[in-house]
Recover the amino acids of this structure.
């Protein structure tokens, strides 16, 4: 069974796929407005600190576990812990992947509509549409956002169906460099606008007085979401990495790529926002409401709009395939059904849940659980509860329960490589990561 298992064909392929999972809406849609709301450079510094001090160790341990087991996330715990409660970790992961992908598909569908709008001149120089009305008309429409969500999920399914090497690796190897070039072009363009310096200053100058404890916690939550940690995604992808690749070097490269793209997104967005006198802390609407306004008033605005929304769609796609793969790999390896069937089943299930999320802005607006909409529930439960719980469990499992010699063997390729930081790594996994993540968890539950 192990010999016939698909794997990444090259180190670059593995990095492209993993960085593809990490780089997504979290980097381009969420990171800039979080930084904007929480003291600019101060948020950036704290974010980088958490990424290195906690993100890296947890990522490394997920890599080691996945490659060691050579199985999907559910199967890994099912084999290693058949008789303990750890077995249920796999269920948590499947639930989390389904929930994240459902609401992720909603926002990704919006980005597709905006690609379409950019192509069809819906907002270009001289048009006088009210962007707020345009956005709210669209997301409350009962058909259009559902249509785009289905298109997005079909694209996701299409890539995953083709397999790890011929699907995921092939397309991420193509999309990631393209995405990098696009965001670089957008960043350079933004920096050459009149008044761009204000935006750069706003983004990089640390304003510690504006960074609240809430902001610090958001930075840690954002680091986890952005690195795709605690969801079984990294574990599943790592099971496709060849035994002679250096996991430490791969994780460092993935972390650098993820952080670099988040910073470049800030560089592409803030100068433009300042050059056109828009409030930089305008929240989640920054991308769908504010930027179209910027494109509307820029020379060649339509071109920049097309490039930007294409970029956002591609970033979302390389993340969504990683989430779908977690579910598909479970069906293929644990339920022994063909990849084709598994992909169709998983895509259909997630799309159905996703449509409920999408409709919760329109026809299902009245449906509330507590005071959250369906979209709100999916986002809240997966990002604020399942993801931190997953992070804590993975850290505790690898720090306390997993055989340390096996962890070391996996990270050093059986002693061939040098590992300089095993002790601090274990320390972080045992104490620091669970404690810090527990604090964010309690905080987001309103208990702290
Ligand atoms: N890391 C992705 C982003 O920043 O948009 C989102 C994501 C993908 C989160 C995969 C979790 C995950 F398992």
């Amino acid at each position: 069974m192990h010999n016939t298992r698909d794997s990444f064909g090259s180190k670059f392929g593995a990095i492209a796929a993993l960085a593809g999972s990490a780089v997504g809406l979290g980097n381009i849609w969420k990171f800039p407005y979080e930084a904007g709301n929480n003291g600019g450079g101060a948020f950036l510094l704290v974010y980088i600190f958490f990424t290195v001090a906690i993100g890296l160790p947890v990522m490394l341990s997920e890599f080691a576990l996945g490659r060691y087991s050579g199985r999907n996330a559910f199967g890994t715990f099912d084999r290693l812990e058949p008789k303990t409660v750890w077995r249920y970790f796999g269920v948590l992961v499947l639930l989390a992947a389904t929930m994240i992908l459902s609401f992720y598909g909603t926002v990704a569908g919006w980005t597709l509509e905006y690609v379409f709008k950019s192509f069809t001149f819906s907002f270009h120089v001289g048009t006088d549409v009210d962007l707020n009305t345009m956005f709210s008309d669209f997301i409350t429409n009962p058909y259009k956002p559902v249509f785009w969500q289905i298109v997005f999920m079909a694209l996701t399914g299409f890539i995953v169906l083709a397999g790890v090497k011929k699907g995921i690796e092939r397309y991420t190897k193509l999309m990631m460099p393209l995405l990098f070039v696009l965001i670089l072009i957008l960043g350079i363009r933004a920096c050459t606008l009149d008044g761009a310096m204000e935006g750069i200053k706003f983004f990089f100058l640390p304003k510690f007085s504006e960074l609240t404890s809430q902001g610090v916690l958001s930075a840690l939550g954002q680091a986890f979401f952005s690195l795709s940690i605690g969801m079984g995604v990294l574990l599943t992808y790592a099971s496709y990495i060849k035994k002679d690749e250096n996991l430490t070097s791969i994780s460092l490269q993935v972390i650098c790529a993820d952080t670099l793209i988040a910073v470049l997104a800030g560089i592409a967005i803030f100068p433009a926002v300042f050059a056109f006198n828009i409030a930089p802390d305008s929240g989640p609407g920054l991308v769908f409401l504010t930027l179209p306004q910027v494109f509307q008033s820029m020379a060649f605005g339509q071109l920049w709009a097309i490039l930007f929304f294409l970029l956002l769609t591609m970033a979302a796609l390389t993340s969504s395939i990683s989430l779908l793969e977690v579910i598909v790999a479970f069906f293929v390896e644990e339920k022994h059904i063909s990849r084709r069937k598994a992909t169709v089943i998983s895509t259909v299930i997630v799309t159905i849940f996703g449509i409920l999320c999408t409709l919760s802005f329109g026809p299902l607006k009245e449906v509330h659980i507590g005071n959250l909409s369906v979209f709100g529930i999916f986002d809240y439960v997966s990002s604020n509860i399942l993801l931190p719980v997953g992070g804590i469990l993975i850290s505790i499992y690898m720090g306390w329960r997993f055989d340390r010699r096996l962890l070391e063997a996996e990270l050093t390729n059986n002693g061939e490589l040098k590992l300089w930081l095993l002790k601090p790594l274990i320390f972080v996994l045992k104490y620091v990561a669970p404690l810090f993540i527990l604090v964010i968890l309690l905080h987001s539950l309103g208990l702290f």
Observations:
- Residues 21-22, 24-27, 100, 225-226, 228, 231, 233, 319, 322-323 surround 4-fluoro-L-phenylalanine (CB under 6 Å).
- The chain has a mean pLDDT of 92.
- The radius of gyration is 21 Å.
- The CA atoms of residues 196 and 271 lie 4 Å apart.
